[in-house]
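INFO batch 0412 | record 1 of 1 | parsing
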Amino acid sequence: MTAELVRGQNHPLPETRLEIRVSVGKPIVAGVTLSDDQGKVRGTDWVAHPGSPTLPGLEVPRQAAADHRLAVDLGAVPDAVHRVNVLLALPVGVGGPVSFGSLAAPFVAVTGLDGSEVASYTITDLDAESAVVALELYRRQDAWKVRAVGQGYAGGLADMLTDQGLPQARELAGSINEAVAQGLARSVAAPPPRSSDDARVRTTGQTAAPGPGAPGPDSTAAPQPVPAPHQPGDASATTGATGGPVNYTHPSRQTSAPPTPPPVAAPAEPGKPAQPVAGDATGWSMEERLYNQVWGMFEDLARSTAAYRSAVDFAESRMDQELDKVLSDPRSRIGNTGDVAREAARAKHGLLVDRARAALDRDLGQLAAESEVVEPALPMAYAGWDSPVWHAYRTPMEIPMAVRLGDLHLPERPDLHIPMLVRLPLERGLWIDSGRSSGTDSLADTDELRRLAMDSAVAHAARLLAVYPAGEFTVHVIDAAGSAAGALSPLVTAGVLNEAPAAGAAGVSAVLAKLTQRVDLVQMAIRAGAADALPPDLDTAEQLLIVNDFPHGFDDRAVTQLRYLADEGPAVGVHLMMVADREDAAEYGPLLDPLWRALLRLTPVADDHLADPWVGHAWTYEPPMAPPGSRVLQQVLDQVARARRTGGR
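INFO prediction complete | emitting tokens
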């Protein structure tokens, strides 16, 4: 039976191999410190954190996420360790919440490897704290117990580690924050909270997080993940020039809870799931319903795969335990007793894995059926370049909720692609990495990678131009060396650029000066509350700057201006898209690290570098390129240019 702990309460642990599951609803950092009998952390090698995630008997997640699973084997921790402290902290310097008081109460559960919950603790009464000791596992007379702590620190990780006696507390806190920032730079940002408190409506009957099976210690049922508690969302806003919230909600879109869409699918036969329907999520419009449905599919696939991988890990751990038991039993050396026991352990392992795979295949089948229905129904901004919707292209009258930047898939089902939708206006710039990555063919030519990266940037720019109303999106290009003339020809030929791509150091300086001045003017107008005082010749459209072959043609001043645009531009409608190989800018060293982290890294070839905001899987990203031989991109750009000349007609 699960013990629901309150602050200060303890509970015995029935076994030494455990999982600690954390759910908060927003990306946080999870870590562990080890303490001696005096409660002191002896050194940095007694701390497990995203930059150094493993210690003897312990493993913590490698990045910030809304949900965490920490693996614990108390039998393997050093004898000098008397306490294992579970730490939670908010990421620093990434634009997220600055205190736990603005989040839902963190939920922490200690479970067995079979998924059965031993104890849980909801950490309440947090306010200005940005770090908290959630639990401690401690020795008591050769046995282990768990205690609910809930000790918060307004000074963050540094104060927490200092309080635990670590001499290098502030240095370690800085390195942890750096590792977390690098991890968040590769993470797909979670969507804003949905406008309904209800869970995603699914005609298939599938839920985002299945409940625990809670099998007994000798059961062969595959474990299921513990469902996360309900987490109310906060407002969908980001920090603007004044330090206050800038609301990106569409002005005509209602914010109260939308009605549940009426069921339109035929009832399923008994024992069979209902047929999926496009737009069966909540929302005030079909666009919003499809957006929520796609994100629901993304979350379902992440959690179903996490459940499968957890079940496989459990099966492996259980088989290892049983094989260790066989090897340590002298009776196994008599006759074929040992062989029989080993074969039984392997058979049980195979049964557990087969059942977990069957459950995963069932979920993947439902998601694949839903994808087949949803993909053809996606509107232009969400559709792939191979969708027929582009052949009936008309200039939109309103800015869409989001735009598709590619596809995502996992190795368990490579053919099941989830559209990667990002809200508009863009809250982060884009970095198209033209260097080698894990998905790059070792024989790929460097020049070919650069060409593919620029082709990808042009495809992204074309889509953004196409989904904005006429005249409400302006593209600038810096091509200092003139090496991207071929890739840029669709934009130049169509006439969608207000001016030719800037070349040379003088061209770089002129474009950057113009855009930084625009950022300064808009920020001053916002601070003064005088938006109507902007110069009449100021282009009020959203601005996109494409920079090719960075840092060629950039001096120190230009680099500083680029960093300024990446940090301050998105809040006032100036966005950055860089096509660059990070190695080319190695001479700047750590000076440019904040720039790379501020941008969402995409690749021109398939690569498994992106992470989801729930469990942190490594997702393979597929860039959104037009089909080979297709002229759809050029035809769309021609219509965009025509609409710009005729005022949208």
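INFO post-check: Residues 195-256 have pLDDT under 50 and may be disordered.
INFO record closed
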